[in-house]
């Protein structure tokens, strides 16, 4: 009897310790969590708790771990084997429980690394693709084939549109959210590909990138489920006009139907006291965040709450209003 009580107390204490460790580990970044998992068996077990791995935010990888210069796009390129080893370790801890994956803005990713990660994140629903990397059509196809449950994707200039869209059409039939990140250009060929390969799209963000007015009109006309388009700080232009100037608020009002106009999220910009994340983060002049810090925020975050991928405060969506 005594032994039984003692055994029960020990189980209770073990359970309490486990829960305390998981609570503490939830506040760690991905690198510190990886280090904690190497301390002892008890810590390693707590580090594997599924709740810690639903969102895998690689943007918290910091350069001191890999001895590379900070805030440099394409950094870590010479650390490929070390990075691969790190990915395998953390994805082993995650045990396939990750549903949201955010790549690092600065880390250069190879085909092999993308597939290695996709093989270990098969439950993925949202991905923010790498900003830099070297990808083949076959590599992108393999990753999307493994990510069949994907619902939300942030596309970057590192992955060519003629690779990603056919792959999404073939394997990922549940895509309802898409964001084009900085570095991309939103052109008519993209709009046509979206109508063809991702017809169920509900949310689109083309914030802070150059965009074609015809492409915008195309998605607003032919994607029947589209509810919201973020055009904050987009450089929207009429591509049939050779002059390089962007269309403003009044031009949008003239070019789009009231129904289409009502779907846009728009920011007037710095001078008019802009409300969006870009306006707020663009003023961050701290040295450690330069030169790409504000861009990194724009890459990861969005005013469409469901597309946002970080822990910053999300500003409520604001749509254009007709006067
Ligand atoms: Zn703004």
The average pLDDT is: 84
The CATH architecture category of the largest domain equals Alpha-Beta Horseshoe
Q: Give the class from helix and strand content and strand pairing.
A: alpha/beta
> Total strand count, please?
12
What is the helix content? Answer: 25-40%
When the domains are counted, the total is 2
CATH class of the largest domain: Alpha Beta
Percentage of residues in strands:
5-15%
Distance between the termini: 79 Å
InterPro entries: F-box-like_dom_sf, F-box_dom, LRR_dom_sf
Pfam families: F-box-like (PF12937)
Domain F-box: 16-56
Protein name: F-box domain-containing protein
3D structure, described in words:
With 323 residues, the protein is α/β, with parallel strands linked by helices. The chain has two domains: 1-51; 52-307, Leucine-rich repeat, LRR (right-handed beta-alpha superhelix) (Alpha-Beta Horseshoe). Helix content is 39%, strand content 11%. The chain contains 13 helices and twelve strands. The strands form three sheets. An eight-stranded parallel sheet has the order 1-2-4-6-7-8-10-12, with no helix packed on it. Strand 6 (152-155), helix 7 (161-171) and strand 7 form a beta-alpha-beta unit. Helix 5 packs parallel to helix 6, helix 7 runs parallel beside helix 8 and helix 8 runs parallel beside helix 9. The model is unreliable at 311-316 (pLDDT under 50). Zinc ion binds at residues 232-233, 267, 269, 274, 276, 278-279. This is F-box domain-containing protein. Residues 16-56 form the F-box domain. Pfam families: F-box-like.
């Amino acid at each position: 009897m005594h032994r039984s009580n003692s055994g029960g107390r020990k189980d209770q204490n073990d359970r309490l310790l486990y829960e305390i460790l998981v609570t503490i580990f939830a506040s760690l970044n991905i690198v510190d969590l990886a280090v904690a998992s190497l301390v002892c068996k008890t810590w390693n077990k707590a580090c594997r708790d599924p709740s810690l791995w639903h969102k895998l935010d690689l943007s918290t990888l910091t350069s001191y771990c890999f001895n590379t210069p900070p805030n440099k796009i394409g950094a870590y390129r010479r650390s490929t084997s070390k990075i691969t080893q790190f990915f395998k370790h953390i994805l082993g801890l995650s045990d396939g429980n990750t549903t949201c994956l955010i790549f690092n803005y600065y880390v250069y990713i190879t085909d092999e690394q993308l597939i290695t990660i996709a093989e270990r994140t098969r439950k993925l629903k949202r991905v923010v693709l790498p900003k830099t990397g070297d990808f083949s059509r076959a590599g992108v196809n393999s990753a999307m084939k493994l990510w069949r449950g994907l619902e939300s994707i942030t596309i970057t200039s590192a992955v060519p549109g003629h690779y990603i869209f056919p792959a999404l059409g073939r394997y990922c039939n549940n895509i309802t959210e898409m964001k084009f990140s900085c570095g991309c250009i939103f052109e008519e060929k993209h709009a046509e590909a979206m109508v063809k390969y991702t017809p169920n799209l509900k949310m689109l963000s083309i914030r802070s990138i150059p965009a074609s007015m015809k492409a915008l009109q195309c998605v607003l006309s032919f994607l029947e489920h589209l509810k919201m388009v973020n055009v904050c700080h987009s450089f929207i232009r009429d591509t049939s006009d050779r002059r390089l100037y962007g269309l403003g608020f009044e031009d949008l009002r003239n070019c789009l139907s009231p129904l289409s106009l009502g779907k846009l999220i728009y920011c007037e910009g710095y001078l008019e006291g802009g409300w969006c994340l870009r306006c707020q983060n663009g003023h961050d002049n701290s040295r450690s965040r330069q030169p790409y810090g504000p861009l990194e925020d724009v890459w990861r975050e969005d005013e469409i709450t469901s597309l946002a991928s970080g822990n910053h405060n999300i500003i409520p969506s604001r749509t254009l209003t007709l006067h």
